[in-house]
Every structure is written in C-alpha cells, then in structure tokens.
Amino acid sequence: MGTVNLSDFLSDGHLISIQEGEILPVELNEAVRSVLQRFPEVDASELDTDIDDLLGLLEDCRKKGDWTGIKWRHAASAARATFIPPRSLHPKWDRLRQLLVRTLDHDHKRSFAKASFSAYLEGFHPDKVLTQQLARSLGHSWPDTLPHIKRLVDRFSLFEVSGLDGRVAKFMANEDQPYRVLKDLGISTPHMNGLFQLAYRRFVARQRKAIARQNTTAIQRVLEWVHPDTDTALREGQAAAINTLLEPWAGTPPRAEVQERIQSELVEAYGDPRLSTAEWGRASKEALTVMRGWLTGASLEQFLEIVSAVEGSHMWEPRRDFWQGIYKNGLIEEAWVILSPQAARLARDRARRSDDKEYLSHARVRDAGSEVRCYLVLRCGEGVVIEGSHNFSVRFYKKSNGSCPSLYEDSYSKHDFNRDRANAWISHVGAWQARVQSEILKLRRG
After folding, report:
1. C-alpha dihedral sign at 55, 57, 60, 61
2. Helix (H, G, I), strand (E, B), or coil: what is residue 177?
3. Which residues pair with 378 in a beta bridge?
4. What tens digit of pLDDT does each residue of 225-255 get?
C-alpha cells in the first residue's frame, strides 16, 4: 500500500474517531483530551473562528441558491452553531437551520452527521421541536453515518426523545462510576450541556435521600460525577450536587469519614468556598454554612497543629485544648489562619506530603520580618476574636469597632492586631480560660 498523507485523508472528509487513552505517548493523549474538552464530540472538520460571519455567508448562499465554494466542514460548523443555544433560539437563523435539518435527511455525509449528533446531545430538550426533528433524522441515518454510537443507541434508545433524560439518569444512578462509564460508552465529555446536564440533575435528585442516610455508595456516585479525576470537575450546574451533598448536615454532622470525604473532594474540585466564591456562588445558603462550618474546624486544627510544631513551649498545650473545646461547644462560626513565613513553609510541606490542599487555605503576615508568630481570626457571633501564638494576648472586637479585622484576606499586617485597637484583651495567665469564654459569650449576645 502506498503512502497516504494525513492532509489528503482529512480533505477527503474521512471520519477520524480517536478516544482518549487509545494512544501513546502521554503528550498525544493530553492533546486529544484538551481538544475533546474544548470541542466535545466534534469530528476532524475545521472549525471556523468567526461563526457569525460563516452563518451570514451561508444565509446569503441560501437566498441566492448558489453554494459555490461551500464545503462540508462549513455545514458541520453551521449545524453545531445553529442547533444549540443560544443561536438555536434566535429566529434570525430559522430558515438556514431548517435547511440544515433537511440536508441531514437527504445527505449522509459523516462529518456533517457527527456535528449534528453532537448538537443533538448538547442542545437536547425533550420539549423542543428542533430536538425532535434531529432525533427523527438521526434515528433514520445513524447506522450508515454514525455506526460508532451503536452502544449508546442500544443502551438508551437514544433517538426516542420522550423520557430519554430519565433513562440516562436511571442508568447513572445505578453505576458506581457514572462519568467513567459514559466515557467508556463513547461520550468524550459527559459534563456537556443538554441531555447529560438534564440527566445529571435527575440523577442527583435520586441520590438525596440515600446521601441523607450516609449511604457511602450514593455519596461516591455523586462525587465521581462532580470530580471524576484530578484534571476534571463539573463546571456547569455544580450547585445541585453541592447542595445535595451538604444540605442534609445543616443540623447534625455526618460520620467523620463521610464529612472528610465530601469536604476534601469538594475543596479539591472547587477550592475553598471562603476564597473561591465564583465556583460556589450558586450553592444554597445552607450548603455554604455547612461547608464553612466544616472548614472552620479544619482551619482551627491546622492552626493548632502548625503552631504546636513551631511554638515549642509547654505553655501552648492548654491553649490548644481550650480552643478545641470552644469550637466543639459551638461558639465559633468561622475561622481564618494567618501564618508567619516559617509556619507557611511548614504548611506547604504538609500539604505536599499529605496531598491535602486545605493546608494551603491561609493568609500570610506581610511584615513579619524574623518573627514567627501566627494568628487565628475567629468569628464568634457578630464579633471577632484574635488568638496568636507565642507571647500574645487574646483580643476581642465588637462588630461596631472600626478596627475589627475581617476574615479571608490574603495578608495582614501584625499591626492590625495591636491590642489598643481591641475592645478588650486578656493575657494567658491565671484563670484566663474562664475570662476568655465570658468575653466570647458577650460578643455572641451582641
């Protein structure tokens, strides 16, 4: 057999189906992954950089009845553009869109069919006329144009629109790794909008009662969909999963291992909600309150652990026990850690060794110099309490105090915590624990 140039192969419009994981080396696999994530279910057709210009050109061709110079890759790009929102909802492209649908009925070009199939999945809505039209057209032609989707068609009756999202949701609810199984069936980006977004929401709703019973299988299924691997996280509609995983614990926390699993996976996927507000922006107030409460405990434990390692004084142990007790008694709503450069290096090392990103959720002292003192900012009711390591007195700030420190800043000056700015302060001498607790209760009463 003679040599075949790849450019010749592509120009002939042959269908190339490369699935992630089929090829080596790793670099090529990663290239395939990035293309598939950016352009889900797209074939080898060239994508036009300015799709509106292309649609305008095709609309002119339609009006004139002259398609000179137009290639199948142009039709494929136009199908993807006009078959999915927002352009599928725009009447400007109605006639061109209907022409493309009729073309799908009569011309069995694989590249065009594959682009249309991608748009069918991504623009799927059972009540939309366009979805039903594409289902009819593709339902007739797929054996000739899209033979690689046979397993999907057989599994879900893929072109029977009624109940399709429910069938996919039921399938997902019975799989321990729903994201990975859908990939194995040929869906390169299961997080896409359309059919799989609708199915995901139904799937998550099915898991809510089981998650509230601390069913680890149900929890695993939702987490696997949200965060299937270190490079992938659900980026559209994630609030539904976040709420389902967290809202059941608004009153009573789950078992420690359940809390740790949910907390670590969600932070890995979306970052610390005290900092990554965009990723968590649509989560419910109840879900955010639960997660912030859990992270308060994590921040307190982090502070006590790191300071215990750098303090080196026998005076620290009673302070550690006291603050753990205050937290367990429900007197601390939120906590934020501020580390000296030495302590921050230790936290980064522990994050690396334990693969726990929560060690990285802290602020720095920007003018620490050679000092090793660390600070803990606590919200107690409407007020703020500052604890510090080494020779530091506890400071108390009312909400009305203009010098009251805020939580979740990236950095602080050590002068932000000068005791003459506080409403009250208590040194760690004598019966300091009782006096500190009394001041906290005053803050909580307002």
Report:
1. negative
2. coil
3. 335, 385
4. 999 998 999 999 999 999 999 999 998 999 9
**DSSP states of 96-117:** HHHHHHHHHHH---HHHHHHHH
pLDDT at 359 over 90: no
pLDDT tops 50 at residue 41: no
pLDDT at 30: 53
Number of continuous H segments (helices) and E segments (strands) in the chain:
19, 7
Look at residue 406 and tell me whether its pLDDT is greater than 60: yes
Q: Among 205, 172, 174, which residue's Cα sits nearest to residue 187?
A: 172
Give the relative orientation of helices 285-311 and 238-246 as an angle to the nearest 10 degrees: 70
CB 179 within 8 A of CB 224: yes
Q: Which residues pair with 379 in a beta bridge?
A: 334, 384
CA distance 36 to 332: 46
pLDDT tens digits, one per residue of 150-201: 999 999 999 999 999 999 999 999 999 999 999 999 999 999 999 999 999 9
Query: Is 88 within 8 Å of 123 (Cβ atoms)?
Result: yes
Which helix H or strand E contains 38, and what residues bound it?
helix 26-38
Q: Which residues contact 403 (CB under 8 A, 6 or more apart)?
A: 397, 416, 421, 422
User: Which CA distances in Å does 182 have to 123, 136, 188, 225, 434?
Assistant: 18, 23, 8, 10, 58
Q: List the beta bridge partners of residue 386.
A: 377, 395
47 pLDDT higher than 70: no
What does pTM read for this prediction? 0.79
With a cut of 80, say whether residue 353 has pLDDT above it.
Answer: yes
| Angstrom distance (rounded) from CA 246 to CA 263 | 9
| Closest of 329, 328, 327, 368 to residue 345, by C-alpha | 368
Does the bond joining 86 to the residue before it have cis omega, within 30 degrees of 0?
yes
Torsion of CA 278, 284, 287, 289, to 10 degrees: 80
Residue 53: phi and psi, rounded to 5, are -65, -40
Q: Are 316 and 308 in contact (CB under 8 A)?
A: yes
Contacts of 177 (CB under 8 A, 6+ apart): 221, 224, 228
Provide the residue type at 57 as one letter: L
